[in-house]
User: Which sequence fits this backbone?
């Protein structure tokens, strides 16, 4: 399958330079950081800036304590599980680490799976939460200063982003041209859609692709990537406003499951079935999507959000019928979990960043402006943002902005 229909970006584009830079062994080792971006100046090999940064850290621009969210009790009820700590010590970066001041943090459906201890049963509270952030480097270890410097905009995927500051290993960070919320949408949501469809979707021109929760954080990318592969895309959602957004990003047929019967629509409009399902709702939606598969159809299990608020984390499906249903159609069901595809993660991100830079990808951000108490601003609003997602209100990726409370020299 090929996602990129249009011409490639030139090496002068930011994303291409980023990718080229990450591949240079000299950059990963000891070369002056900015010389690899093709700039006319380079820093001395003996990096004196480190001591200045460290002194800066000891000075007044970075406080000694900060706010962060901590899981204090295992529960899928986010408000019960999570506590806002007001005066946690700001962590110190180790040799290969960056200290990132978070500006935007992403809400994920699985934040409540994480707070329920479903990711790693051996981890006991208290523990940090929040999967991803975008911000700027405010201090760093000497090892990390080979590739980074204070002021660099970065994004990362690492537990503990629901905090004013997060220590991020430099190798896990992605340098960015600027601190923008759109970049955050690609880190988990975009990469999940790209890698799962590339590895498991077997997309090609004319195939019919059903995306459930299509107007959400990851659904929006599944729709657009399937369209880029010249597929016919059907998207489910819960409101006409979401349907309008889906149309705007190229979705061929939207189904508002609150006003239309998804099963009947699929049976009537797609009597031969759908070739691929990007399924992230679970329960009844899983069952009807499975029934709608074409011969040799593929259903990719991305998640099952409809069950996450249950104590078990699941909603029942008609599993006993599964073998017969698959056999009758030579169909298949595939699970996809981003953590198992990390070897391809940088490639995926590079691809998505190039698409975004070329204007070929909409990265819709929902700051909750239309939510009852307005925009999600500050760590306190993470609770509201999680509620908003579980009310099914969001269009695009839910992002919380963390305004800077400290006067910075940066
Ligand atoms: N496998 C992986 O590695 C991976 C990575 C990222 C995300 N995911 C999965 O992808 C799915 C979407 O996650 P996301 O973070 O991008 O969230 P999201 O799609 O931005 O938000 C959730 C959306 O799901 C829809 N939904 C349908 N039934 C729901 C229900 N019973 N309760 C709440 N929402 C419901 C709602 O939209 P409508 O009702 O309008 O459709 C809601 O807006 C989740 O299942 C998540 O676990 C998996």
Assistant:
């Amino acid at each position: 399958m090929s996602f990129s229909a249009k011409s490639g970006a030139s090496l002068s584009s930011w994303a291409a330079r980023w990718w080229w830079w990450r591949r240079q062994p000299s950059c990963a080792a000891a070369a002056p950081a900015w010389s690899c971006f093709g700039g006319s100046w380079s820093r001395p090999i003996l990096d004196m800036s480190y001591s200045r940064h460290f002194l800066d850290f000891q000075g007044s621009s970075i406080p000694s304590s900060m706010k962060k969210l901590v899981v204090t009790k295992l529960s899928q009820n986010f408000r019960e599980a999570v506590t806002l700590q007001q005066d946690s010590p700001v962590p110190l970066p180790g040799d290969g680490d960056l200290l990132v001041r978070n500006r935007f943090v992403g809400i994920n459906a699985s934040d409540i799976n994480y707070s329920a201890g479903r990711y790693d049963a051996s981890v006991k509270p208290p523990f940090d939460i929040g999967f991803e952030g975008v911000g700027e480097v405010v201090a760093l270890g000497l090892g990390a200063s080979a590739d980074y410097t204070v002021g660099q905009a970065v994004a990362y995927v690492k537990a503990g982003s629901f905090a004013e500051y997060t220590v991020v290993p430099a190798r896990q960070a992605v340098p960015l041209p600027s601190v923008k919320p759109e970049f955050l949408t690609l880190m988990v949501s975009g990469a999940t859609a790209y890698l799962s469809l590339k590895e498991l979707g077997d997309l090609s021109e004319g195939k019919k692709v059903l995306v459930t929760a299509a107007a959400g954080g990851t659904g929006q990318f599944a729709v657009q990537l399937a369209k880029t592969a010249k597929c016919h895309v059907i998207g489910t959602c819960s409101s006409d406003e979401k349907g309008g957004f889906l149309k705007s990003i190229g979705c061929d047929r939207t189904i508002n499951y609150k006003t239309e019967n998804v099963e009947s629509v699929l049976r009537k409009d797609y009597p031969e079935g759908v070739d691929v399902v990007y399924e992230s709702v679970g329960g009844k939606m899983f069952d009807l999507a499975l029934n709608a598969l074409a011969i040799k159809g593929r259903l990719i299990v991305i998640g099952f959000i409809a069950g996450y608020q249950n104590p078990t984390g699941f909603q029942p499906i008609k599993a006993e019928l599964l073998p017969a249903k698959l056999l009758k159609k030579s169909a298949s069901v595939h699970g996809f979990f981003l953590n198992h595809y990390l070897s391809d993660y940088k490639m995926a991100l590079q691809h998505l960043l190039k698409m975004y830079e070329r204007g070929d990808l909409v990265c819709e951000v929902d700051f909750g402006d239309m939510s009852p108490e307005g925009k999600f601003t500050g760590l306190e609003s993470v609770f509201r943002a999680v509620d908003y997602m579980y009310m099914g209100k969001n269009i695009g990726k839910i992002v919380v902005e963390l305004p800077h409370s400290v006067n910075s020299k940066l």
In short: The chain has two domains: 5-179, 186-340. The two ends are 44 Å apart (CA to CA).
